[in-house]
Structure formats: C-alpha cells, structure tokens
Amino acid sequence: MVRYDYPSDKCSIFGIKKAITKSVQYLPKLLISNQLIPKITIGESFQYLGRYFDFHMSNDNHKTELTTLLNELMILTQSHYTPKNKLLLYSRYVLSKLAWHFTVATLPKTWVTENIDSIANKYIRRWLEVPISGTLGTVFLTNNKFGLSIYPPSVKFIQCQTILRKALKSSPNESTNDLWKATSNHTNIQYDAYNSTTEVPKDFRSGHENKLLNQLTSQGSFFSSVTKFALPQFNKVWSIAQSKLPKNIYNFTIRYINNSLPTRKNLNRWAISSNTDCSFCLSPETLLHIVAGCQFYLDRFTWRHNSVLNFLAHQLQTVDGSTLYADLNGFKSPSILTGDTYRPDLLLSCSNGSLYVVELTTGYETNLKNNVKRKKDKYRELLRQLDMLESIGFDKNHQMYCVGKMMTIAIRTTYYIFCCRNKEWENPDLLTI
Ligand SMILES: [Zn+2]
Question: Do 402 and 346 contact (CB within 8 A), yes or no?
Fold first, then answer.
C-alpha cells in the first residue's frame, strides 16, 4: 500500500468502466488521507502534461483554447505596428504560440483550415487592406516570387504533426515506435510523407502558385506574367524596396499584385458600381489601363519615366571624367551627339572612349500585352544596364542600390498615377527620393 500525501485539491479522478457491452464514464469515489478526490464530471476533460483528455477524446478544449489564443494574439498585433511588422510578429511569434496545441491535440487538418486559418486570414486581410474578393495566395508566396513569405496556421500545423510523427518513428524506445506503427492510418500518412518540415511550406506554395497562375491570368494581372519572366536578382531587390515603403504604398503593392485595387472594372465585378469605363477614353478601366494603357494618361507615364531617368542620371553624374547627356531638363541633351531622329534617354561618354546608351522602360506593366519575346528582350536590356553600371565602376552594392531606388521611384510614381485616375493631371515635379 502506497501512502500519498498529495493535497487532495491538487488531484482529480476520472473513471471509465465497462457497462454491459460498452464503456461509459462514471464518477469514482476515492479518498486520500480521508479526503475525497474531486471527480471529473461526465463529459468534462482533465489535463495531463498539457494535453486535454475527455471521454470522447473530442479535443474540444484544445479547439477552444486555440481559437481564443489566436484571436487574442492577433488583436494584440493590431496596434500601431506597420503591416510589415505585424506580419513579422505573426510569423515569428503568433504561429509558434499555436505549436503546442498543434502538436499534442489530435485535430483534423480540415478543422484547422476552416477554423484557424480563417481567423488568421481575416486579420491579415485587415492589415494589408485586401478585400475579400482579392486572393491572399500571392501574399503566401516567397519573397522572390513577389510574396511576403508567410503562411497560414494550417502549414504550421502540418509541420508540428510531421515533427511529432518523426519523433515517434525514430524514437530509441521500441514501444514508441510501435505507437507510430499503430497510428500510421489514413490521417497520419499525409504527415509521414514529409521528409522535413521545410517541405511543408514548399508544397503549400507550389500548390498556390499553380492555382494563382490560372486564376490571375484571366484577370490580366501583373503576377501571372511577371512570375514567368522575372529574374531572381531583381525579385530580391523588389522585396527589399517593398519592405521599406510606407504603409499605404506597401499595401498598394500587395493589392497591385493580386489585382484587387478598386479599379472601375473591379468595382463593377464586386457589384459596387455599374460603370466600368475610364472617364477619359471610355475603355474598360483595368489596372493595366490606369498604370500603363490609357492614351490620355501619356504625360503621367512620361512623368514616371522621367522620374526614374532623373535618378539614374544623377547617379551617373558622379562617374569621373565622363560626360553625361540625358533627355531631361537640366542636362545636356543626347541629341547633341545623336541628332533628333534617334534620341536615346541617356548617353554616357567615358574618358576611356566608351559610350553607353540607355533606353529606359518603366514598369513591367508596359509589356504585359506584348509577347513573350519582347518581354525577354526587356529583361536582357535590364541586365545590360547592370553590366553598364558594373563597367563604369559601380560595385555590386551600388548597382543594387541603384536598381532598388529605381524600383522604389517606379512604385511610388505608379501609386501616385493610380491615385490620380479619373482626375486632371497637375504636372507635378519629377519624383525624387
Ligand atoms: Zn482611359
């Protein structure tokens, strides 16, 4: 007989007994030091090592705690942080707080997707101002695919289950291995399939990417055309440039990529407005139309073009012993060398006798309608410009700095052009940053 000196209020008792053919929960009477041990009432659960147990193994307490915890954490994250920092908190902190429940509780994946993902998505939408009609799929991609490298809680859940299954399988304890074998059922097979946790988000993202390509192609989005042709080194610069933008422009870039900005075409699709047409030319007002298509907006597109060119010209001015010609006010005109018929945007004549010619096209969007070949040519062009920066003596960092700044100017001017849609153009000064 063992004598327990535990205080009885720290203990509780849970009873299951066989009643004719099936098991039922009952309320056993047990005394320790003449003290009655509190019973777990019928249908209630008890907690052991952080895991809840009830008669039906329902996991209801885990579900409630998960839902409450996630809501509380996401509300905390609501404060004055920028959307970018909120997402950082979400990825680094919030998800890890869910990991315990995701590991010990037996939850169906569909339950997590339907109940937990939906809470996270609701807040992420709010932070990024993405309307319900705009997909979050683009946001879930990695930085180098123009996404934000985040993922929904269900991916974390699969990772937790993968880790748990691996631990059971590779345990030095044989009976633990038996437990793994005994539970290798249809539910767990999906987690056993992963070799490592990094495969989980990869798998999730490639699924999303395929879906997005089909979904967004039909809407003529930036995403579908750019993902095919973009060069990795520029995507990285994009992600850095994007992360430094103020909140409203940052969110603009997200909605730009998933085509959920309030263009008239979209407002009509969302049944908010019956008018789909541009005020100036009566063509359907799509995103492409506003930022690169409308024939009445040409001076706006020139303003964006010249703002980027102006930055590049100022950078090239610093090259020793060279003469710079730029098709901008305040610079020597390239027509001095070339005549007016073929006048490039920029010419740089170096002391070693080499002459660089720059033709600048701003924004990927301008080539959206064109064929693949033109697109590829354009990127080759960009690479050539990098080569030029290299050969005039800009080091790697300075080259990336230039590309990043040019991208930022292109984003900010595009944002401004978008804000001025259907309004008169006031011919602002070139944008400098
Ligand atoms: Zn128009």
Answer: no
- Counting the structural domains of the chain, the total is 3
Question: Do 242 and 149 touch, CB atoms closer than 8 A?
Answer: no
Q: Is the predicted pLDDT of residue 315 greater than 50, yes or no? A: yes
Distance 427 CA to ligand 1 centre (A): 18
What's the gap in Å between 262 CA and the centre of ligand 1? 15
Residue 426 predicted with pLDDT over 50 = yes
- What's the CA-to-centroid distance between 263 and ligand 1, angstroms? 12
Which tens digit of pLDDT belongs to each residue from 205-246? 998 888 887 776 655 555 666 666 566 667 778 888 999 999
Residue type, position 403, single letter: V
Residue whose entry in the numeric block shows the structure tokens 């699969």: 158
With contact defined as beta carbons under 8 Å apart, do 423 and 280 qualify? no
Between the CA of 125 and the centroid of ligand 1 the distance, in Å, is: 30
Query: Could you tell me if residue 279 is inside a domain?
Result: no
Question: Residue 420: which residues within 8 A CB-CB, separation 6 or more?
Answer: 300
276 CA distance to ligand 1 centroid (A)? 11
Q: How far is the CA of 413 from the centre of ligand 1 (A)?
A: 18
Q: Which of 182, 198, 225 is the last residue of a domain?
A: 225
Sheet holding 355-358, edge to edge: 323-326, 346-349, 355-358
Residues 304 and 409 in one domain: yes
pLDDT in tens, 132-146: 888 898 899 988 888
pLDDT over threshold 70, residue 120: yes
Residues 368 and 384 in one domain: yes
For residue 126, the enclosing domain spans 60-225
Distance 289 CA to ligand 1 centre (A): 6
Is residue 48 in some structural domain?
yes
Which residue matches tokens 């994009």? 238
Do 184 and 208 belong together in one domain?
yes
How many whole angstroms from 213 Cα to the centroid of ligand 1? 27
Q: Is residue 238 one of the residues assigned to a domain?
A: no
In a domain, 189, yes or no: yes
277 alpha carbon – ligand 1 mean position (Å): 8
| 66 and 164, same domain (yes or no) | yes
